[in-house]
Amino acid sequence: MTHVSIRQRIALELHRQLVREQQEKHPLRQLFWECTLRCNLRCRHCGSDCHISSSVRDMPFGDFRKVLLRVSENYDPHRIMVVLTGGEPLLRDDLESCGRAVYGMGFPWGLVSNGVLLTPRRIDALLSSGLHSATVSLDGFCQDHEWMRGVKGCFRQASEAVGILAAEPSVKFDVVTCVNNRNYGSLDEFKDWLVSLGLKSWRLFTVFPAGRGAADPDLQLGNERFRGLMDFIARVRKEGKIMASYGCEGFLGEYEGRVRDHLYTCQAGLSVASVLADGSISACPSIRYGSRQGNIFRDDFIDVWENRFGLYRDRSWMKTGKCAGCKWFRYCEGNGMHLRDDSGELLLCHLDRLV
């Protein structure tokens, strides 16, 4: 990898001290609720078993409400963002009433959606229910997006939702784009189009080699294109027309401080927790290895959050294999937890991609 400046190294050392404090105090700041496993798209990179119908029923809000009550008894709910995710959360007919109840308990809440069901009427209903933030997936122009998402017509629906939400000042809103070999060449044009919609925040990510994504060469950027993506994001940020950023995964060496609003930390188990569709208490919903630390139907959420998640708060166990002799381990700490397989082995090192 190339040179990390003295200024970057000082920033990384200061950030490392903040991470140590987080590991000790683990302040809960973001709580995901996987409120359904049903989905109305067929995304080619999705590693889940989401379908329009699911063998795991939607969790009744009353069960999740008990978790929120325990959380509000122990922490300040105004400082904890509740994020409704899935599957596709908008397949729940009661989503607005769920959001209204979350908001009524003092929690800001947000939504992660594919945008297909975000009609103007639905957006108005969500805003009336206290919606605080939203993320919509949009993977390029029509052909590229629908190739990725597997359903014709979904681009028009999602892009209309993006235009509406981008113009709504009361909502913290961003678009997330999966960069792959198909849409890589049109990123500049797509960026200009997003700017024309009024979008202010744009997150880009890449598919890690797991599940269906691992076997699809169209999804996996080579090293040259991965570095090119980092250069693109850094350039767009300097332009200032839209705030682009790379997803939260992965320590990026010389690009730290240049392609995100923050330096790298995997916040899973430090400030981020999840309640999955079957009641499992996890960290980030994307994680496989070591994810489930308990279950809300048999365990107290607060006890689990305070006293478990040891794999996440002391990551020295990751310093094996290729990580054992890496001089950047003190900042990376073994990469994102979602980049570990079922046995805890590292699937992907971002530094290897920046050679």
Protein model, in words:
This protein has 355 residues and is of the alpha/beta class. It contains 11 helices and 10 strands.
Kindly summarize this structure in a few lines.
The protein has 355 residues and is an alpha/beta fold. The chain is built from 11 helices and 10 strands.
The sequence of SSEs as H and E is: HEHEHEHEHHEHEHEEEEHHH
Residue share in β-strands:
5-15%
Radius of gyration, whole Å: 20 Å
What is the makeup of the main sheet? 10 strands, mixed
Spatial arrangement of strands, main beta sheet: 7-6-5-4-3-2-1-8-9-10
Helix and strand topology:
Elements: H1 6-25, E1 30-34, H2 61-74, E2 81-85, H3 95-104, E3 109-113, H4 120-128, E4 131-137, H5 142-149, H6 154-166, E5 172-179, H7 187-196, E6 201-206, H8 223-239, E7 243-246, E8 272-275, E9 280-282, E10 294-295, H9 301-307, H10 310-313, H11 329-332
Parallel strand pairs: 1-2, 1-8, 2-3, 3-4, 4-5, 5-6, 6-7
Antiparallel strand pairs: 8-9, 9-10
Record keyword descriptors for this entry.
355 residues, alpha/beta, 11 helices, 10-stranded mixed beta sheet
